[in-house]
Amino acid sequence: MPVLDTPFAQLHLIRQPEQQNEPLQAFDAADEYLLNHLAEQNLPKGSRVLVLNDSFGALAISLVGSMHVTSSSDSFLAIKALGKNLTRHQCAFDAVTVIAASQPLIGPFDCVLVKVPKTLALLEEQLIRLQGQLAPGAQVIAGAMIKHLPRAAGDLLERFIGPVQASLAVKKARLLSATVEDKEPFTSPYPTRYRLDEPAIELINHANVFCREGLDIGTRAFLPHLPKNLGAARVADLGCGNGVLAIASALSNPDAHYTLVDESFMAVQSARENWQAALGDREVVVRADDGLAGQAPQSLDVVLCNPPFHQQQVVGDFLAWRMFNQARDALVVGGALYIVGNRHLGYHSKLAKLFRGVEQVAATPKFVILKARK
Are the folds of 4-179 and 192-373 the same? Predict the structure, then answer.
């Protein structure tokens, strides 16, 4: 297992979700660069450091014992990894203050370490939320692998924090150091909103929600083919995003019981607000989780899913395959998983290995809607 070796600590870290023969390590050269750079700044012991978007705990755990560390992420899996890696290194879980990205920050912070996220809207929202949370003379340092570092990231730092100095490249990573300036107060542009005609609802989308400016084309293809006449079925929207699939289904199935799950805290916040706006006080469970890992076996009749094909910057079908397995375990015998997917991903053959029957419900030139029965 690769070792993260910096002036602060030597760490053996695991990713989440875990898989056998894991081909990817739980840190990158940008993590190393951030920590090595911070060590050169000679921050006083006990300084308050905020870590944003720490994928698996590399930054936060390295600083335990040296600094008072707060870690904020929009990923349930990232926070789960932080907890597991703290335990692996004999640290108490409360050695790091953990704040979901959907919750307000509590400063002031002497230093902010930022791993630049894939979604720049999330970075924009996080930088806006730093208003009033920085101590005098605070440092804000962002890092990323160069191939994942758009120019717009530096523009956002300059707009919301102050002048930016880009570092030299080290191991294909780069840092952006922002000098804090007094700024006029900013109002966040998030959440965004858009309306649908069918069903006739308005959807709220917090900063890190997938397709926050409008309905994604996969979901648009899926909506007309959601199952009808579900009676009192127990239905889960797996990877719910802003909750549109569950809400549309619930409007057509007034007696069904719904659970909405996503690993993004901002998605869960959006889904909860959208459910209440569309369905009022109708009973629902909305939670951030590792998919259906926390769902009791054989406790669902229907699962709806528009599966992701990436985790952060890593593209692949590992998460989708895992979600299909979780759905199978959570469904009763005779229950069904409904999914939408790009034709080229070949989900039909994957589902056929897990379920006793797979049928194509509908298709467009780009997408297929499949029903897999347990």
Answer: yes
Domain 192-373 sits in which CATH superfamily?
A: Vaccinia Virus protein VP39 (3.40.50.150)
Any idea where the domains of the chain sit in the sequence?
4-179, 192-373
Question: Of 192, 231, 201, which Cα lies nearest the Cα of 219?
Answer: 201
Q: Which residue has the tokens 């909103």?
A: 193
For the chain, state the CA radius of gyration.
22
Specify the CATH class of 4-179 in words. alpha beta
d(CA 83, CA 138): 27
8 Å CB contact between 320 and 307: yes
Record the tokens describing residue 208, joined without a space: 């890190």
CA atoms within 13 A on the CB side of 290: 14
With CA atoms as reference, report the closest residue to 29 among 122, 109, 149, 150.
149
Q: Measured over all CA atoms, what is the biggest interatomic distance in the chain, rounded to whole angstroms?
A: 64
What pLDDT was estimated at residue 20?
A: 72
Q: How far apart are alpha carbons 78 and 89 in whole angstroms?
A: 16
Residue, of 180 and 210, whose pLDDT is higher: 180
Q: Which residues contact 302 (CB under 8 A, 6 or more apart)?
A: 227, 230, 233, 234, 235, 236, 256, 331, 335, 336, 337, 338
Q: What is the mean pLDDT of residues 308-331?
A: 75
Q: What is the mean pLDDT of residues 284-298?
A: 96
Q: Is the peptide bond before 199 cis (omega within 30 degrees of 0)?
A: yes
Contact 246/260 with Cβ under 8 angstroms? yes
pTM value? 0.94
